[in-house]
């Protein structure tokens, strides 16, 4: 009889755990202690073990010895970390009435032809008098010339570089590139937009960057600028909870802020606008006094509680928009704009779902031009090496296919996007800014090709 090979599938690898992981169809590869058969995580499988392992109360995805639980809880990585001074829960979330909360979400598939026709008619009435065809401003910037002409960059990278070059070109045209400023990149991801702004402003003095991103990101490019005169400060926080006026760096530098973003997804755009232009409703006089606490015994004292906060001076905004189907009425800044047109949360919910028809239609066109490409390929090509944006789950139902043609759906989808964006323009106008929408890149480069800009009036 042939000997069983220790390959980790038919038998455990030498010195590794003897627990068979059914889901992975192989044995666990964790190293075991001397004289042990199972690793610590699978110690319960050993009937002879004197110590029992239980799921961690903070994160049941891992286990811990029951008799070491109290010690583990003090150092568990899942333990909630102290919130930074600029974290204020839901400060930018917006609000809704009880009546609006009670409104049921209705998918497109659940609507009848008559309902859709009525919604489309409401949409067309609402956009009357609005500029639904923004100017085209396909620009570039010399800071990216070398990268754009580098043959080592593939098609995906080239498309992102073209978008970044056009954003910088539009910023330069608006005189938003210059010294003595702090650029705040919302939804920064790897920080590539800030990187190129820094390259463009290498000769400028006192230029700094704040990169706001809620998730932990690998391969960040801001690490390349550690030895430069510019500061690259990264804030790992959801925009919904960010109070810019409490950020120590901004308090210290007192520089005007230029807000930027590339494909700021759905509601994140509205959260960013609230973050920039609205302050907490809480009265400063009612805030608790500043406290000094020690994070750990013998550690350095840190300040928590109330911080003296100054108004953030916003000198400009340049944000590439996307994913209108992920907008939310609670966060949306254009509620007044909608209400002035006799619209509310119900219509907004329908329009944000219908907005996905614009890009879904273009995917259909791309598919016809490139029949060998799958929808996943097109999606990946659209988002490239950056974080993929979640597509809409609103598939057009079969029973409505004959009611509205594909071309009409695309047009309706674009009108939905424009109506939502005009609500944002209205919001910025009410706050003393001169906003605009412009096509900053072509459809073949990005399906989401609208840039929102704003300058003080």
Automatic annotation (TrEMBL):
One of its GO terms (molecular function) is tRNA 2'-O-methyltransferase activity. Its EC number is 2.1.1.225. Residues 368-399 are annotated as: Disordered. It holds the Pfam family zf-TRM13_CCCH. Keywords: Metal-binding, Methyltransferase, S-adenosyl-L-methionine, Transferase, tRNA processing, Zinc, Zinc-finger. PANTHER family: TRNA:M(4)X MODIFICATION ENZYME TRM13 HOMOLOG. This is tRNA:m(4)X modification enzyme TRM13.
